[in-house]
Amino acid sequence: MKKKILLLTAALATLLLPYSCEKQPKTPKEDPVEFTVEISDIAIQTASVSVSATGSPTLVRMVDAIRLSDVQAALGSLEDEEAVKTWITRNGSAIVLPYDSAAKDLEPETDYFIGVVAFNKDMDVVAFKTATFKTLEAGSIVIGGGSGAGSVNENTL
Length: 157
Fold this sequence. Notes:
This protein is of the alpha+beta class. The chain has a single domain, classed as Sandwich (Immunoglobulin-like). It has 3 helices and 8 strands; from the N terminus they run αβββααβββββ. The chain is elongated, with a radius of gyration of 25 Å. The N and C termini lie far apart (about 60 Å).
């Protein structure tokens, strides 16, 4: 009886061995996605926003120039990166890269938030970045095309 079981096991292993040794097709690795967010020409009620990325994201969603206080009221804090990514995913609009926009009708001396997320073909978030900037005070004189009072906070997976 033991001999029959041993022979059956050997026969089964012999039949399955060629399948286990077949080469599996390699899935091509996707290039990592990294965002560049530039905020320039910040004025009293306007700012220029540019977004570009390396790699080839399948989809990019963006929240463009929303009051930072509104984002903080919705999230409580910007420290929870998962919550920020989820919020951008739900509230953002799909964009095509490279993206250039002129944010208009902003409020003077107000902090604004911009956030972008990138998805791969499986719709997993593979990168995200946030940026904040503050519009100039009412009555300010803007000389030249400087970047004004802006800061960029980068978050990349």
